[in-house]
Design brief:
343 residues; alpha/beta; 4-stranded parallel beta sheet; 12 helices; 15 strands; globular; binds threonylcarbamoyladenylate; binds magnesium ion
Length: 343
């Protein structure tokens, strides 16, 4: 049985945090909220605990985990060195939704890094995550607390739906703030490269490190999988999802045509709709799940994964959604996650 403990996200109960910290120190597996999504935590230096995380998530062993620490200094034993650019980025963005890939030290188990010569490090800002790290005084490896290839969990109910009975404890701190996983940047050598877009976008990173490039523009070695999270099929609903990447008018015309074709073949269709499209899409006879207004990317990001889960629950034959066209720091992260969901 998985225990679920509700806490005040701004001021978590010390008793619950102490129990969770003890569980982690003893090799247990605990889900907890971060400012991005819920993480599934385990003692990063305990191989058996790490293997429990992979087993609970049904995650392939070649997909490395992010190690969460309370401060930049706490990362020192885990890495070969902390390069000056990492210090600058940490000073600007930590605690917060940025993960840095650095050259690892020998102390980090191969199970955490999937045998790579690097390790991903993040200092989260959520008060529950911070309290847990400070109390446990260990590095906590934590992937998102979902079954592999399901949308990441932004509420404790999502964690329960995927992992009930497989993990020891879920700390319920309500809905997460950002709703999309952290930005991952590779600082392990060569040109600093964004491996996964997130709330800290290219422009923000450029203000600190002008030579940073996004993964798409960068030339990735074809032999090694630099970040398996960059695999196209990831974060996806079970129902096949079609993404319309065009301006609003063009996308709506195509969506309506496809929806009508599917309906006329007797298929059931769910449209994941921006608030401003609900009127237009609503009279087609499709099922609707409302996302948020396209003019509010913060709300779209916060609700995206919950909305994808709602779409799945409707059990339709297809999910149709158009990409976000608003210019905003979160837009490329939202577009990225919609593309992966559609792959
Ligand atoms: O916001 C987040 O980052 C959340 C919360 C819980 O912190 N965690 C998260 O973990 O999204 P996960 O495991 O779902 O995604 C980790 C990503 C994957 O894309 C993985 O491939 C990449 O980080 N990664 C981990 N270690 C890496 C490494 N050494 N080199 C390159 N990519 C790495
Ligand atoms: Mg994940």
């Amino acid at each position: 049985m998985t225990d679920l403990q509700r806490v005040d996200p701004a001021d978590p109960d010390a008793g619950v945090i102490a129990r969770a910290a003890e569980l982690l120190r003893a090799g247990g597996v605990v889900a907890f909220p971060t400012e991005t999504v819920y993480g599934l935590g385990a003692h990063a230096l305990d191989r058996a605990a790490i293997l429990r995380v992979f087993a609970a998530k049904e995650r392939p062993a070649n997909d490395p985990l992010i190690v969460h620490v309370a401060t930049l200094d706490a990362a020192t034993p885990l890495v070969e060195e902390i390069p000056p650019v990492a210090r600058e980025l940490a000073a600007r963005f930590w605690p917060g939704p940025l993960t840095m890939v650095l050259k690892r030290s020998a102390r980090v188990p191969d199970e955490v890094t999937a045998g790579l010569a690097t390790v991903a490090i993040r200092v989260p800002s959520h008060p529950v995550a911070r309290a847990l790290l400070e109390r446990a005084r260990i590095p906590i490896a934590a992937p998102s607390a979902n079954l592999f290839s399901r949308p990441s969990p932004t509420r404790a109910a999502h964690v329960l739906a995927d992992l009930n009975g497989r993990i020891d404890l879920i700390i319920d701190g309500g809905a997460t703030d950002v709703g999309l996983e952290s930005t991952v940047i590779d600082l392990s050598g060569g040109v600093p490269t964004i491996l996964r877009p997130g709330a800290i976008d290219l422009d923000a990173l450029r203000q600190v490190i002008p030579d940073v490039v996004s993964g798409r523009a960068a030339t990735l070695p074809t032999t090694a999988m630099r970040s398996p999270g960059m695999l196209p099929k990831h974060y996806s609903p079970i129902t096949p999802l079609t993404l319309y990447e065009a301006d609003r008018e063009t996308a709506l015309v195509r969506m309506k045509r496809d929806a009508q074709q599917r309906l006329s073949r007797g298929e059931s269709v769910v449209v994941l709709s921006y608030t401003e499209d609900v009127g237009e899409m609503g009279n087609l006879g499709v099922q609707l799940v409302e996302l948020a207004s396209e003019s509010n990317p913060v709300a779209v990001a916060a609700r995206l994964y919950a909305a994808l889960r709602e779409c799945d629950e409707l059990g339709a034959g297809a999910i149709l959604v158009r990409t976000i066209t608003t210019r905003h720091p979160l837009s490329s992260a939202i577009q990225d996650r919609l593309r992966r969901a559609a792959a």
